[in-house]
């Protein structure tokens, strides 16, 4: 549903119904005979309406005051005065013709006719046409209608006459003319009722009176019967407005005092916010420096962690190498020990050889003695025995030499075994020291890791503190700016309240001009 469809009609707003309009016409003395008379004058109205409308427009636009108003209206709307005058005259002519058409049809001058006139009245009210110029046209309208009837007698007023020896001519029934003029005057009064009511009710509406809340007038009645209610409502509204102006004045005074105190408090708040902003900025700088120091310490701790891990790796490698060396030394000690045992075995063999050589020498000596005893026959055997003796001596000598060498080897081997055992012992001690160093470095690495973790937490904490300090500084600056804006707004409100107070005083002076007792 559109806005136009939702908007109540003028007839419903003013509670106009057929029964109420019939009562109006009856009260004015409008009869069926008069309506029949006007209905029979339609042809005459068609012939004369345009001329009457043009003359009425000429009179209205030619008047000094009314004409000036319409000229100003034309200028404001960008319309030529001549065009407005011609259109206005045509509208009057059209309405004049409609009067005779309404009189001719059953149920004429009903709600639709009256509502169209309400619209005309509202339109002229909205363009601020003074009511006197509108209502003042009706007497001129009546005079123009009278002149037109005399110049062009309406058919119902014509009377045929026959003169002696002359052609028959039409006469004038002045009683019919008078009845017609009286009937038209009643219609003009009926029209003016709609115009006047529309004028002042539109004025009430423009002043804020809601005619829909005035209640129901009842059958045969309309909003004019509730005029006392409308007037009283308007009076109560104005009186309430008058009383409110004094309340507003008191409120403005209180607001002025409160806003002055608020302005002072806001100024103090702005100064405090500025100090907070400066302190927060300094705190942000300190936090930033702390974050930088923690970052440097964290970097140093990271470097120490790297070094400790490298030391652990080196200790592990040293331990591994020492373990390998100890193993090899132990293997060498085992081999040397085995060599010493073999040397002892060789020594035993040498001793056995020496003993065999001694026995062989003894046997060779015995063989030589036996060969000497044998004489010539034993010479060959003596030679062999001598060779065996010499070989035995050489073998004994070699065995003795070998025994000396083996004894030296055994002594050196024993020394080497002691040295190897000492080296193995020292290597084992070095391995244990390397393990302890590795364990210590691992503990250092764990401690440095924990320190790094703590420093990381401190770095994050100092970062958070710095960010929070920066945000606090920014918030404090915003708060300072906001309080300054609030202060400015407060001053504007104070100014506005002062203006409102001045306006309320002016309204109070205006309402004093109204008699609202």
Low-confidence runs = 164-169
Q: Round the Cα radius of gyration to an integer and report it.
A: 71 Å
What structural class results from the helix and strand content?
Answer: mainly alpha
Report how far the terminal alpha carbons are from each other: 45 Å
- Named CATH topology of the largest domain: Globin-like
Major sheet:
2 strands, antiparallel
The backbone outline, from C-alpha atoms, is rod-shaped
By CATH reckoning, the class of the largest domain would read Mainly Alpha
Multimeric state? single chain
The number of strands is: 2
Count of helical regions: 13
Give the spatial strand order of the biggest sheet: 1-2
Helix and strand element order: HHHHHHHHHHEEHHH
Strand-residue proportion: under 5%
Find the CATH superfamily of the largest domain. Answer: Globins
**What is the mean pLDDT?**
77
For the record, the count of structural domains works out to 2
Helix content class: over 70%
Q: Under the CATH scheme, which architecture of the largest domain would be assigned?
A: Orthogonal Bundle
Protein name: Methyl-accepting chemotaxis protein
Domain Methyl-accepting transducer: 258-480
GO biological process, one term: signal transduction
Keywords: Transducer
């Amino acid at each position: 549903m559109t806005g136009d469809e939702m908007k109540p009609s003028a007839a419903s707003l003013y509670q106009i119904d057929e029964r109420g309009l019939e009562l109006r016409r009856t009260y004015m003395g409008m009869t069926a005979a008069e309506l029949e008379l006007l209905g029979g004058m339609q042809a005459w109205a068609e012939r004369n309406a345009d001329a009457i409308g043009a003359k009425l427009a000429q009179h209205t636009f030619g008047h000094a005051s009314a004409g000036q108003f319409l000229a100003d209206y034309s200028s404001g709307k960008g319309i030529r005065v001549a065009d407005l005058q011609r259109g206005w005259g045509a509208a009057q002519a059209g309405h004049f013709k409609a009067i005779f058409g309404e009189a001719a049809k059953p149920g004429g001058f009903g709600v639709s006719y009256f509502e169209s006139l309400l619209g005309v009245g509202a339109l002229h009210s909205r363009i601020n046409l003074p009511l006197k110029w509108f209502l003042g046209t009706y007497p001129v309208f009546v005079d123009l209608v009278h002149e037109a009837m005399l110049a062009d007698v309406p058919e119902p007023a014509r009377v045929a006459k026959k003169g002696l020896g002359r052609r028959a001519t039409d006469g004038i029934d002045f009683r019919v003319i008078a009845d017609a003029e009286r009937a038209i005057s009643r219609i003009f009064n009926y029209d003016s009722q709609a115009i006047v009511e529309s004028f002042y009710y539109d004025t009430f509406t423009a002043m804020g009176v809601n005619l829909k809340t005035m209640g129901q007038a009842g059958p045969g009645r309309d909003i004019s019967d509730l005029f006392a209610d409308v007037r009283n409502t308007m009076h109560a509204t104005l009186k309430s407005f008058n009383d409110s102006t004094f309340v507003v004045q008191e409120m403005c005074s209180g607001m002025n005092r409160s806003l002055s105190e608020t302005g002072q408090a806001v100024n103090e708040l702005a100064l405090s916010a500025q100090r907070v902003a400066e302190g927060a900025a300094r705190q942000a700088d300190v936090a930033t420096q702390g974050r930088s120091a923690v970052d440097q310490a964290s970097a140093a701790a990271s470097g120490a962690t790297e070094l400790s891990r490298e030391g652990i790796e080196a200790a592990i490698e040293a331990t591994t190498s020492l373990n390998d060396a100890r193993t090899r030394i132990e293997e060498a000690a085992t081999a040397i020990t085995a060599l010493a045992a073999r040397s002892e075995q060789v020594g035993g063999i040498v001793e056995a050889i020496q003993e065999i050589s001694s026995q062989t020498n003894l046997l060779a000596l015995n063989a030589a003695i036996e060969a000497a005893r044998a004489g010539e026959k034993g010479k060959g055997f003596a030679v062999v025995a001598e060779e065996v003796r010499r070989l035995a001596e050489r073998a004994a000598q070699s065995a003795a030499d070998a025994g000396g060498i083996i004894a030296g080897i055994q002594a050196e081997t024993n020394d080497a075994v002691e040295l190897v055992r000492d080296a193995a012992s020292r290597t084992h001690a070095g391995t244990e020291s390397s393990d302890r160093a590795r364990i210590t470095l691992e503990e250092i690495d764990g401690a440095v890791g924990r320190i790094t973790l703590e420093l990381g937490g401190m770095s994050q904490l100092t970062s958070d503190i710095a960010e929070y300090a920066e945000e606090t500084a920014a918030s404090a600056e915003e708060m300072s700016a906001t309080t300054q804006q609030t202060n400015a707004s407060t001053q504007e409100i104070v100014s506005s309240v002062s203006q409102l107070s001045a306006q309320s005083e002016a309204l109070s002076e205006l309402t004093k001009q109204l008699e609202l007792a």
